Amino acid sequence: MTAIQLESASVQSNHKATLPELGLVCITVSKEVRFRTMTRTRYLQLSENERKTALKSIYTDNLEKLNSALTFCQKHSIKLYRMTSNLFPLCDMEDEIGKNLLEEMSTNLAKIGSRAAKLGIRIVLHPDQFVVLSSEKRQVVENSIQILKTHAHILDLLGLPRSAWALMNIHGGKSGRSKELVEVISQLPENIRSRLTLENDENAYSTLEILEVCQNAGIPLVFDAHHHICHENLSSYDDESVVKMFYAARETWKNPDWQLVHISNGKDAFNDRKHSDLITDMPSCYREAPWIEVEAKSKEEAIAHLRDWWKNKI
């Protein structure tokens, strides 16, 4: 199992104490990692030259900030980074200004991807909620595929592998359409399908339902324990079904050492769907998880807190 040496602690034992790799989600709670954006409304108010100038400035700054995020992760021994899905805003516009700019910047993107590889930092992506491959509306499905194509192209420009190592994680979307979801996934371009993972959610798809989709589609399941306990109205992360689903999800990964799971805690109650600032409760089976994305509002502070919390339990 991939693991990291506990920070700032000398563990007095005959074995090396290790933890799963804990992942930072997009930004830091400090202002150290922040990205720029632009609305579509504002963009359409600009002339063609103004659009190119504005996007070039944003893309250049955001690429530099992505590099800074890698530096931050290196400094804090974080080996997993979820890249923002809005790194290059409006790059899929019909005028193709953003798309052309990315091609012009391809060498710089490749350098960032190469640096991540050298640092051993795994970059993953979670496209936004507009990606619904199971929608009943064909236009929504087509738009979703186009969004995924754009993201996959960016990952290609970064030189990231076409595998679940550099995954793009989405939810199942429209409930009751598992068969249609599997069919759409089977027809996706290779640079999307090879990276695609699905995640259980709190409403539309239970863990068991999305597990069956993943099994039929031949793609990995990213298990989210908090979504699971909310969907099933459970009172403990160590409920038998949490353990069962965690290991069932592992079976969907061709390389079990790449298995990624999510963790969050309820803000005001155990089953609260809103995320808390820190992680104070974890499934015991998550000690066996190679990679964990920490979905807590306090970001890097939550990662540090979780490491200390876990350290005291060793």
Number of helical stretches of at least 4 residues = 11
Class computed from helices, strands and strand pairing: alpha/beta
The averaged pLDDT comes out at: 92
Please provide the count of β strands.
Answer: 10
Q: Choose one word for the global shape.
A: globular
What oligomeric state is this? single chain
Could you describe the 3D structure shown?
With 314 residues, the protein is of the alpha/beta class. It is built from 11 helices and 10 strands. It has helices spanning 40-44, 48-75, 97-104, 106-119, 138-157, 178-186, 190-193, 207-217, 225-232, 240-250, 299-311, and strands at 4-5, 18-19, 21-25, 80-83, 122-125, 168-171, 196-199, 221-224, 260-263, 291-294. The chain has an 8-stranded parallel β-sheet. Strand 7, helix 8 and strand 8 form a beta-alpha-beta unit. The longest helix has 28 residues, at 48-75. It is globular. The two termini are 17 Å apart.
Keywords:
314 residues, alpha/beta, eight-stranded parallel sheet, two-stranded antiparallel sheet, 42% helix, globular, disordered N terminus
Topology at a glance:
Elements: E1 4-5, E2 18-19, E3 21-25, H1 40-44, H2 48-75, E4 80-83, H3 97-104, H4 106-119, E5 122-125, H5 138-157, E6 168-171, H6 178-186, H7 190-193, E7 196-199, H8 207-217, E8 221-224, H9 225-232, H10 240-250, E9 260-263, E10 291-294, H11 299-311
Parallel strand pairs: 3-4, 3-10, 4-5, 6-7, 7-8, 8-9, 9-10
Antiparallel strand pairs: 1-2
Helix pairs in contact: 2-3, 2-4, 6-8
Please outline what is shown here.
The protein has 314 residues and is an alpha/beta fold. It has helices at residues 40-44, 48-75, 97-104, 106-119, 138-157, 178-186, 190-193, 207-217, 225-232, 240-250, 299-311, and strands spanning 4-5, 18-19, 21-25, 80-83, 122-125, 168-171, 196-199, 221-224, 260-263, 291-294.
